[in-house]
Amino acid sequence: MPGDVCKIDSGCPEPAKIEPCIRSALPTPNWKRKSGQTVHLRGTLFPLPTGQTQVNCGDPNRCCNSYYANLALRVAEGHVWLVDERGGFQCYGDQTAMCCGFATGADLVVEVEGELHVRPERSSYDSTYVSSPRICRVDPDR
């Protein structure tokens, strides 16, 4: 039950290992114009918040609200959501920590390949995503 133990105290499950890239692909030029096509992107993973519960728990119970996020890829032009049917790119947690299916951080550069979807009717915050992405870790020397 939310609030029993804070994520920062209980910890997160070990995230899935991101295998090194066998061969590196160049990022797709003008990728934002490639909706419905396979694109290659390079960047860093980060949890992009999607929602939270709004329980008024009071001060003693600082971890009673649940937080949710989807992993996104930070690229030079902004960010792209990563979405799959298994939920591997979702994150959960509370005010103290967020647990994600993959490791995140500015020092972990990844390549993503998948089908790009652009929904112009949505806000720029969530209008672009890659479905069923394949992901690999970029060697820092590349």
Beta content: 35-45%
How many alpha or pi helices? 1
Major sheet summary line: 5 strands, mixed, barrel
State mean pLDDT (0 to 100 scale).
85
Share of helical residues? under 10%
Helix-strand pattern, N to C?
HEEEEEEE
- The rough form would be described as globular
The tally of beta strands, per DSSP, is 7
Rg measurement, Å? 17 Å
Q: SS-based structural class? A: mainly beta
Spans with pLDDT under 50 lasting ≥5 residues? Answer: none
**What distance separates the N and C termini?**
45 Å
Lateral strand order in the biggest sheet: 1-2-3-7-6
Q: Explain this structure to me?
A:
A 5-stranded mixed barrel has the order 1-2-3-7-6. Strand 2 and strand 3 form a beta hairpin. The chain is mostly beta strands and 142 residues long. Helices cover 3% and strands 40% of the residues.
Chain-wise SSE layout:
Elements: H1 7-10, E1 38-52, E2 67-75, E3 78-83, E4 90-93, E5 98-100, E6 109-118, E7 128-137
Parallel strand pairs: 3-7
Antiparallel strand pairs: 1-2, 1-6, 2-3, 2-4, 4-5, 6-7
